[in-house]
Automatic annotation (TrEMBL):
Organism ancestry: Bacteria, Pseudomonadati, Bacteroidota, Chitinophagia, Chitinophagales
Keyword Signal: yes
Secretion signal span: 1-21
Keyword terms, alphabetized: Signal
Protein's name according to its UniProt entry: Outer membrane protein beta-barrel domain-containing protein
Signal as UniProt keyword: yes
Length: 185
């Protein structure tokens, strides 16, 4: 990830953190949220995009995401299992998740006709991290393992062999996401 893209991703989080710093003395509500709207980058945001999560039960969330995924519009839908304490509250909330949607993006410079998104299942886990000055939301970090079929490798090999496309980057077996979730309810 280049420095400009990283700066663009982190800038909203820093501004939110600074704006909430004034309310440090307020007692945060760390009870489980029921609805969140997140902005961030990663598969669970559809690329660079939004994530809407609804929790019909405090430990189980259903989410939908959509955003820009380098080769077009990416989307994902999934389920999130939060590992919350039985009693009390926690600022760090681990979770496991599974989703279906885009899990590979092939973007060819100066030849967008070859751009293609691939869809399939992805599993992973992460942490939702709140703090005393972010009582209206929290940062969410995750590691994802996309389950890709042979069609992705076959497409890349076809582009190399038949169209002379050179690939400078390789698909990683894992991906990461970072976002900020605004608590709506």
């Amino acid at each position: 990830m280049n420095k400009t893209l990283l700066t663009v991703l982190l800038l909203p989080f820093l501004s939110i953190t600074i704006s909430h710093a004034q309310s440090r003395n307020a007692v945060p509500d760390l009870s489980p949220d029921k609805v969140t709207l997140g902005i961030g980058g990663g598969q669970d945001y559809g690329g660079l995009g939004l994530n809407l999560t609804v929790y019909p039960q405090k430990n189980i969330g259903l989410f939908a995401a959509g955003g820009y995924a380098l080769a077009g519009f990416g989307y994902n839908v999934g389920v999130k299992l939060r590992l919350l304490p039985n009693e009390g509250v926690s600022k760090v909330r681990p979770f496991l998740a599974a989703m279906y949607g885009y899990n590979a993006a092939i973007a060819v410079s100066d030849a967008s006709q070859y751009n293609k998104l691939f869809y399939g299942p992805t599993v992973g886990g992460g942490l939702d991290i709140g703090s005393l000055f972010m009582h209206k939301g929290y940062i969410s970090l995750a590691i994802w393992v996309p389950i890709r079929g042979d069609d992705v490798d076959n497409y890349i090999n076809n582009l190399k062999t038949n169209y002379g496309v050179a690939f400078n980057n390789h698909l990683l077996p894992i991906s990461f996401s970072v976002g900020y979730k605004f608590i709506l309810d």
